[in-house]
Amino acid sequence: MRPTNMSRARLTAGATAVCATLAVVPTTGAADTTRAASSAKATGGAAKQQTKRERKRTQASVWVQQVGRNVTIGRTTSVRGKLQPSLRGRVVRLQVRRGNGWSTVDRTLTRQGGRFSFAYKPQRPGVLTLRVQFPGDQFDKRTARAAGRMNVFRRAYASWYALYGNPLACGGTLGYNELGVAHKTLPCGTKLTLRYRGKSVRVRVIDRGPFVGGREFDLTGATKRALGFGDLGTVLATK
């Protein structure tokens, strides 16, 4: 029995619908795949940007491991330490306190493991307050670490005196246990550090003198004993 025209039409319509359905399925899958790839790319880019921002916010650390505490004018002393993260070629600075700010007196680059070493030659006497500064870069923030104090000495010829009970030019009378020095021009009350054969003492200017050519300081008896000083000789002084 041959199919009628109506049967043929129904068969043709069914085949067309099936083909249309089959044609749509792969198109939908490709769109989903494209959207997933775009989403993954965007997520990866955002993650990279976030990681980069977090790397920039890292706080560096400075460790000071060795400082020469006593140095004579014209001689070189060292300051050593380590910067973390431990990378080579990063700038670090040695700074000295000047009034209300800091002055850079030496700079260097870190070596393998973040280690650094300064060679500093001070040119005038005094008691210096030091720090080591990392100025910061594209990866780590600026930071600094205190490095303590350094005594910078000059040589001075000195004697001593023991006029106990006599009045002092800066006020009061000289006692047996009075630490101090006499000087012709330094203001009364000026503090300085004296050093002699490895011993140091911190004293004030309390009197005037010595009035003998070539001598810069007269030590009180207590100062003489604290230093193990003799009658005449050269001492180191921070003023």
- Shape designation: elongated
Cα-atom Rg, whole angstroms? 40 Å
Number of individual domains: 2
The CATH topology of the largest domain is Immunoglobulin-like
Number of helices: 2
Mean pLDDT: 84
Major sheet strand order: 10-14-11-13-12-15
Terminal Cα span = 130 Å
Portion in helices: 10-25%
**Main pleated-sheet profile:** 6 strands, mixed, barrel
User: What string gives the helices and strands in order?
Assistant: HEEEEEEEEEEEEEEHE
Q: Which second-level CATH architecture of the largest domain applies?
A: Sandwich
- Low-confidence segments, given as residue ranges, are 3-9, 15-27
Task: Determine the strand fraction and express it as a percent band.
Answer: 35-45%
- SS-derived structural category: alpha+beta
CATH class of the largest domain: Mainly Beta
Number of strand elements: 15
CATH superfamily of the largest domain: Uncharacterised protein PF12988, DUF3872
Keywords: Lipoprotein, Signal
Region (Disordered): 30-60
Signal peptide: 1-30
Biased composition (Low complexity): 30-49
Structure, described:
It holds the Pfam family DPBB_1. Residues 157-235 form the RlpA-like protein double-psi beta-barrel domain. Residues 30-60 are annotated as: Disordered. The chain is of the alpha+beta class. The chain has helices at 5-56, 221-227, and strands at 58-59, 61-67, 70-72, 77-84, 91-98, 101-109, 115-120, 126-134, 140-141, 143-161, 181-182, 191-196, 199-207, 217-220, 233-237. The chain has two domains: 58-151, Sandwich (Immunoglobulin-like), CATH 2.60.40.2410; 162-237, RlpA-like domain (Barwin-like endoglucanases, Beta Barrel), CATH 2.40.40. The strands form three sheets. It has a six-stranded mixed β-barrel. A three-stranded antiparallel β-sheet has the order 2-4-7, with no helix packed on it. A two-stranded parallel ribbon has the order 1-9. Strand 12 and strand 13 (199-207) form a beta hairpin. The model is unreliable at 3-9 and 15-27 (pLDDT under 50).
